[in-house]
Amino acid sequence: MASLEIHPKTKKQVDEFCQLLTEEAELLLSKTFPQTITEMDMLLKKSLSRPDLVKAPLDIPVPDPAKEEAKCKKREEKEATEGMKDKDSDKEDKEDTEGPPCGPICCNKHVEQSLKEVKPQINTLKEKLNTGDYRQLVHELDQYQDFELRLVVLEIRNTYAVLFDIINKNYDKIMKPRGDNKALVY
């Protein structure tokens, strides 16, 4: 096999590069990997293992039923006064659109009165339940994301540990390769 001629200057540059690369690899193996593994382990033990940090209090106001009823009454009064103004101008148009097309339907006055009384309470209860559900969903989402973060940190730590173990076990083979291709490693 023919040998390739390399200038001494180029050979020196390649040797310097190989030496620099070797020093960086040794630094990575001796300090960076163990330090990163330790940091990830400490992060898992201290910060990510505290469930009380995940459930932070939410400042979502719960609507006051009395205030909500007062707002609804004001809104209804406002709509009624505005409706009176509009009724005079569009009285003919509204007569055609009021009620079902077949004419007025008889209904149970007792049921109609009960519906009018219960409807605001149902709306208030619905708003409270929606707020409570939202709070629960926020806490569940926080717990899920905390769990996902723990898994990511565990995966990163384990990857560093496996890589450190592989390099450490094969350190002699990497630094002193055998065979014809030993120049290809560094």
Please give a structural write-up.
It is a single chain. With 186 residues, the protein is an all-alpha fold. The protein contains seven helices and no strands. The longest helix is centred in the last third of the chain and has 61 residues, at 109-169. The radius of gyration is 38 Å and the shape is rod-shaped. The two termini are 21 Å apart.
How much of the sequence lies in strands comes to under 5%
Structure classification: mainly alpha
Overall mean confidence score, pLDDT:
76
Which geometry do the CA atoms define? rod-shaped
In total, the number of strands is 0
Oligomer: single chain
The amount of helix comes to over 70%
> Which segments are poorly predicted (pLDDT under 50) over 5 or more consecutive residues?
none
The arrangement of helices and strands along the chain is: HHHHHHH
Rg measurement, Å: 38 Å
Spatial separation of the terminal alpha carbons:
21 Å
Main pleated-sheet profile:
none
- In DSSP terms (H or I, runs of 4 or more residues), the helix count works out at 7
